[in-house]
Automatic annotation (TrEMBL):
GO molecular function, one term: acyltransferase activity, transferring groups other than amino-acyl groups
InterPro entries the UniProt entry points to: Acyl_CoA_acyltransferase, GNAT_dom, N-acetyltrans/Recomb-assoc
PROSITE patterns: GNAT
Residue ranges of domain N-acetyltransferase in the record: 1-151
Pfam family, one: Acetyltransf_10
Official protein name in the record: GNAT family acetyltransferase
Keywords: Transferase
Length: 160
């Protein structure tokens, strides 16, 4: 079940984000980049997104296993707890967020980390631009701006 996150979900969303970053990012990003991610996905930022109604969680048997947010037509902070990856929950929350966005916009944008890049390609996103952003002490945060338009969404999800 996917539902809008509530203020009391802030801690569990933060926990999912941190556990996923620790497991997935340590092998491909410098410690300074991971620190940047931690600051970006701070409790305060998560709480603000929840307060704005921008954050959703996916629950399985009453347990929060993943999260995703959106701002206008931009998807952000999509994380599935490492113990629940590989069961389709990432696809489920992405399709939910895409539908919300594409009901009002012509396309969806997101910034993909190195670890999420193939997932997004497999789900119909195209690469727009790759950015190498310096964050600290010569550490570089590499991410890719990706897009899926409404036509591609319906073609992939409804064979139209």
């Amino acid at each position: 079940m996917i539902r809008q996150a509530k203020e009391q979900d802030t801690g569990i969303v933060h926990d999912i984000v941190c556990k996923t970053m620790e497991r997935a990012y340590s092998s491909c990003y410098a410690p300074e980049v991971i620190d940047y991610f931690r600051d970006y996905h701070s409790m305060d930022n998560i709480c603000n997104d929840i307060s704005n109604g921008d954050t959703y969680i996916i629950e399985v048997d009453g347990k929060c296993v993943g999260t995703g947010s959106h701002h206008g037509n931009y998807i952000s902070r999509v994380f599935i707890h490492p113990d629940f990856q590989g069961y389709g929950y990432g696809t489920e929350i992405m399709e939910y967020l895409e539908k919300l966005i594409l009901d009002e916009h012509e396309s969806v944008f997101l910034h993909s980390s190195i670890t999420g890049y193939q997932f997004y390609l497999d789900h119909g996103y195209s690469e727009k631009e790759t950015i190498n952003a310096p964050v600290a002490d010569d550490a570089v945060f590499r991410y890719t701006i990706m897009e899926k338009n409404k036509h591609d969404y319906y073609k992939l999800n409804f064979n139209e």
